[in-house]
Amino acid sequence: xxxxxxxxxxxxxxxxxxxxxxxxxxxxxxxxxxxxxxxxxxxxxxxxxxxxxxxxxxxxxxxxxxxxxxxxxxxxxxxxxxxxxxxxxxxxxxxxxxxxxxxxxxxxxxxxxxxxxxxxxxxxxxxxxxxxxxxxxxxxxxxxxxxxxxxxxxxxxxxxxxxxxxxxxxxxxxxxxxxxxxxxxxxxxxxxxxxxxxxxxxxxxxxxxxxxxxxxxxxxxxxxxxxxxxxxxxxxxxxxxxxxxxxxxxxxxxxxxxxxxxxxxxxxxxxxxxxxxxxxxxxxxxxxxxxxxxxxxxxxxxxxxxxxxxxxxxxxxxxxxxxxxxxxxxxxxxxxxxxxxxxxxxxxxxxxxxxxxxxxxxxxxxxxxxxxxxxxxxxxxxxxxxxxxxxxxxxxxxxxxxxxxxxxxxxxxxxxxxxxxxxxxxxxxxxxxxxxxxxxxxxxxx
Length: 446
Ligand SMILES: [Zn+2]
Prior knowledge:
Helix content is 37%, strand content 24%. The chain has 2 domains: 4-63 and 356-410, Urease, subunit C, domain 1; 65-348, TIM Barrel, CATH 3.20.20.140. By secondary structure, it is an alpha/beta fold. Strands 1, 2, 3, 4, 5, 14, 15, 16 and 17 form a 9-stranded mixed beta sheet that branches. A 4-stranded parallel beta sheet has the order 6-7-8-9. A hairpin with a 2-residue loop joins strand 16 and strand 17. Zinc ion (ZN) binds next to loops.
């Protein structure tokens, strides 16, 4: 009997030494079941000990990328809401479009999104959407890892909230442990205090976290102060939301006082800078959050604002946007970008066994080609990863010890079939009737 199920041979490995991210050359990585069992100098592990081997000479092994905030099935509407203000983006596009969705649309949309994520080296995503049983089925079949929360608006009532609790119970630990489920109220501007309080009570009873949008614009904060006398973050605190592990999406307009308050709780924040740049929402106080010890991870948001599910692109934009906003090129150095993308992502989703290539960790591994002209010379492999690499450099993807893509070929998703299924739904999906919308974005003065 071979000792290992999979042996990756001769690759460079992004790893940590004494707290710093470094790339070590010429290593073999041995995997048994769903875990990394050994990382050793090339040739040290006998090939005969492995059931299968992958020649990865010249490639860079990185931990599977973690997408901490998305709405995966929104790929169905890619490119339909361009160059519009945020109110119009929600009220004239997103929510009318989403009212067209039927459960099976979500299944095919989720598969398309997962195919794109695998091709981009993403092995774990946190989804905040509707018809989550279909998303969970797509995750189960495709082999990726996901944290899934069923998005709910306050106006849908407690019954709907309870239905999302049923989803949490149905799928918690599903797909052999690859699925975790949380509660996902939409936002403080579309869920009132009582609804948020009810959500927090249920999350605590279920022992799960809460994934929610918060303080996305200065206008939302101004509106919250006017309507409730407190910021959106304080509204969540007063409702008891932070008594459960919480993942806040965005937090662009968090105040100094908000950040000081959040310090005392188990709260992480997801950053999706492409959306912020595109919708001109501002720049989040990421440095202040990190200085306060708040965990920050990277997300892509849905593709109707970010157009791709490419975490490498978001990583790069996060660094560039932070430098530009601070007018300081020393801000957000490479090491910090790595820490946010990998350690931050794992901590934000409360999945401590991912985000690092080390013995005993879960085998979520991405092999990236390094032979492109844009990656030569390789004086600084981490700089290449952050500022030069492209999603198209991703060659082979392993999640939970299983190959999902090998030498550029998807192994678990029939992409032509997914495209065909979505194509015949497009005409129905892209209709927009303004009165037929899921929710209404409040008018704010930005
Ligand atoms: Zn979002």
